[in-house]
């Protein structure tokens, strides 16, 4: 059980996050790449970094960074093309390890999942020991390292998994949870992106403690339905269950700009990069969709969406990009600057043609 934790009803959640997954697979399979700064992605033209090794991250290279920017940060950066079929196969190996310890597994991506071991951890002595066994088995069977966070809810387990990266684990007990959350900067909270952070900072909210102490009516006025969730996580409270076998009804990616955009060429370049990223996500998950949704959030926080559907699944990255550009043209000329742009694929089907429903995945990054 978690150290210092006696209540029998407390959940035991483990968050497993593979370390630099795509890049680590490439370094595992090609000895010449080991110890070198590696980026998975397209290095020429307007390519972007899909993943970066820890050696590359030391130079400031990050996922979703334009390739040209990454090369300025690290001139010796080695680009390798992604191999999503290999990543999916390794992911299946990893999830098979999870299944030995619990049936309550909520995959979040190919390399990340939440596990509820509340009903099984006693067989191994503690949730901490379960995490150690899982990480050891993953390394033995794949040659890859994983980090783990162990806590009494999903929010804190996710935060804990980042605390000892790479190849480590960290426990946040019920006694530690409220203080741990209070000490964080709000941008460290999973789900608070650059735009929300800026709005909180404008209200004088910079830390979890500031968020905890903010009047709930002020939070509701500025953040609507999300206010209750923000107030809860600032206190280390998260009642969301681990939901097994969740499937997606949409797949999307969006970016919040450091400065608002008004120029067509800049907006087009951002949209093309988003489409490239969405196509990689779609390929990695072996799904397809018929409907594309473009979301625009203006500088005044007003959001508008435009949708385009096809009779059959979008078959190529070029087709996705062309459809997205048709939607973007509907917004121009602009009557106000844009602060956020996102593109989403819906009407999803798996490889066998089955419809997928119930969960939306968004990857919120900063441009």
From TrEMBL:
It is an enzyme of class 2 (transferase). Binds 2 magnesium ions per subunit. It comes from the Bacteria. It is found in: Cytoplasm. Keywords: Cytoplasm, DNA damage, DNA repair, DNA replication, DNA-binding, DNA-directed DNA polymerase, Magnesium, Metal-binding, Mutator protein, Nucleotidyltransferase, Transferase. The active site is at 112. Its cofactor is Mg(2+). It catalyses: DNA(n) + a 2'-deoxyribonucleoside 5'-triphosphate = DNA(n+1) + diphosphate. One of its GO terms (biological process) is DNA-templated DNA replication. Mg(2+) binds at residues 17, 111. The record marks 22 as: Substrate discrimination. CDD domains: PolY_Pol_IV_kappa. Its EC number is 2.7.7.7. InterPro entries: DNA/RNA_pol_sf, DNA_pol_Y-fam_lit_finger_sf, DNA_pol_Y-fam_little_finger, DNA_polymerase-Y, DNApol_IV, Rev_trsase/Diguanyl_cyclase, UmuC. SUPFAM superfamilies: DNA/RNA polymerases (SSF56672), Lesion bypass DNA polymerase (Y-family), little finger domain (SSF100879). Residues 13-193 form the UmuC domain. Belongs to the DNA polymerase type-Y family. Poorly processive, error-prone DNA polymerase involved in untargeted mutagenesis. Copies undamaged DNA at stalled replication forks, which arise in vivo from mismatched or misaligned primer ends. These misaligned primers can be extended by PolIV. Exhibits no 3'-5' exonuclease (proofreading) activity. May be involved in translesional synthesis, in conjunction with the beta clamp from PolIII. Monomer. This is DNA polymerase IV. The lineage of its organism: Bacteria, Pseudomonadati, Pseudomonadota, Alphaproteobacteria, Acetobacterales.
């Amino acid at each position: 059980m978690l150290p210092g934790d006696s209540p029998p009803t407390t959940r035991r959640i483990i968050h497993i996050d593979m370390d630099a997954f795509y890049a680590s697979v490439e370094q595992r399979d090609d000895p010449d790449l080991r110890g070198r700064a590696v980026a998975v992605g397209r290095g020429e033209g307007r390519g972007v970094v899909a993943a970066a090794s820890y050696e590359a991250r030391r130079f400031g290279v990050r996922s979703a960074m334009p390739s040209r920017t990454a090369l300025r940060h690290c001139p010796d950066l080695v680009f390798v093309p992604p191999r999503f079929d290999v990543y999916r196969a390794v992911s299946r190996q990893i999830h098979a390890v999870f299944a030995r310890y619990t049936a309550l597994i909520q995959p979040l991506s190919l390399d990340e999942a939440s596990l509820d071991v509340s009903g099984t951890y006693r067989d191994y002595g503690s949730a901490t020991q379960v995490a150690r066994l899982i990480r050891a088995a993953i390394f033995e069977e794949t040659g890859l390292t994983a980090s783990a966070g162990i806590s009494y809810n999903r929010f804190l387990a996710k935060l804990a998994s980042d605390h000892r990266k790479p190849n480590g684990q960290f426990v946040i007990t019920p006694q530690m949870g409220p203080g741990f959350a209070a000490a964080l900067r709000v941008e460290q909270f999973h789900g608070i992106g650059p735009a929300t952070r800026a709005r909180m900072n404008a209200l004088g909210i910079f830390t979890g403690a500031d968020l905890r102490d903010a009047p709930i009516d002020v939070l509701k006025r500025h953040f609507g339905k999300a206010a209750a969730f923000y107030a809860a996580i600032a206190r280390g409270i998260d009642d969301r269950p681990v939901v097994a076998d969740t499937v997606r009804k949409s797949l999307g990616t969006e970016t919040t700009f450091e400065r608002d955009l008004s120029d067509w060429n800049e907006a087009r370049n951002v949209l093309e990069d988003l489409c490239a990223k969405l196509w990689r996500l779609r390929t990695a998950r072996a799904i397809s969709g018929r409907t594309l949704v473009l979301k625009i959030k203006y500088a005044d926080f007003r959001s508008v969406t435009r949708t385009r559907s096809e009779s059959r699944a979008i078959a190529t990255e070029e087709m996705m990009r062309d459809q997205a550009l048709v939607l973007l043209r509907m917004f121009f000329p602009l009557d106000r600057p844009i602060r956020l742009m996102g593109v989403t694929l819906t009407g999803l089907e798996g490889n066998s043609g089955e419809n997928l429903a119930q969960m939306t995945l968004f990857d919120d990054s900063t441009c």
